[in-house]
Amino acid sequence: MCDLAGLLRALGSVGGLERIRLSSIEVNHLSAELVETMRKTPKVAPHLHVPLQSGDDGVLRDMARRYDAETYIERVGRARDMNITTDVIVGFSTETDSAFERTLAVAEQIGATKVHVLPYSPRPGAKTAQVNPIPGPAKKERSQRLRDESARVARARWRQKIGELDTVLVDRPGRGYGADYTPLLLEGPLGSFQRVKAAALSDQGIIAG
C-alpha cells in the first residue's frame, strides 16, 4: 500500500513528467515525511495549499474541524521554506471580532501568500443558522483585511526573488507559474516551460526579464 509520500517518490522517478504539484491537502495529512519527500523530490513543486478556515479554536470546533490552531501552525511550520496558500471562511456565525483577529494572526504567522476568502453562508437547518449572522459589511471588511495581508506577504516573498532564475509553466496568455507556484508575467507558448529571470514586481506577480 502506498501513502502520499510514497506516491510522490514514485511519480518523481517517472520519465517525461516535468512538474508535480499538490493541489490541496488537509493539515492532518501534512506529515513530516511528506514535507521531507517534497524537499527531496526535485519535480515536486515546493508549494502547499492547506485550508485554515479559521485561526480560532472555538470557531474551528463549531465548524467541526478536527484540528486546532496550534496543530495547524505546527504542521504548516514544517514547510516554512515553501510557498504556502490557504482558504479562510469569513463571517462564520460564531466568529467574534477577537476570533477574526486570531485568524488574521495565524495567516500572518504562516506566511500565506494567497488567502482564498470564502464568506460564510449558513445552510438551511444547520445549527449555526440559528445564531445571529455576521452583518455583511463586517464580512466585507474582514475579507479585505485578509486579502491585504496576503498581498503584503506575497510581495515580500516576490521581492526576495528578484534577480533569480526560475522555470515557468505558461498556463495562459502572458502569465505562468514558477517552480513554487509564484505567478510570473511573461510571453510564451501555452503549456511550455520557460527559463526566465525575475526582473521586477507588479500587483499581479513577478515580471520576467
Helical segment tally? 6
Mean pLDDT: 94
CATH topology of the largest domain: pyruvate-formate lyase- activating enzyme
Residues in helix, %? 25-40%
Give a short account of the largest sheet.
5 strands, mixed, barrel
Straight-line N-to-C gap: 45 Å
What is the structural class? alpha/beta
Taking all Cα atoms into account, the compactness measure Rg is: 19 Å
SSE blueprint:
Elements: H1 4-12, H2 32-40, E1 47-49, H3 57-62, H4 69-76, E2 83-90, H5 97-110, E3 112-119, H6 136-161, E4 165-172, E5 175-177, E6 183-185, E7 193-202, E8 205-208
Parallel strand pairs: 1-2, 2-3, 6-8
Antiparallel strand pairs: 4-5, 4-7, 5-6, 7-8
Helix pairs in contact: 1-2, 5-6
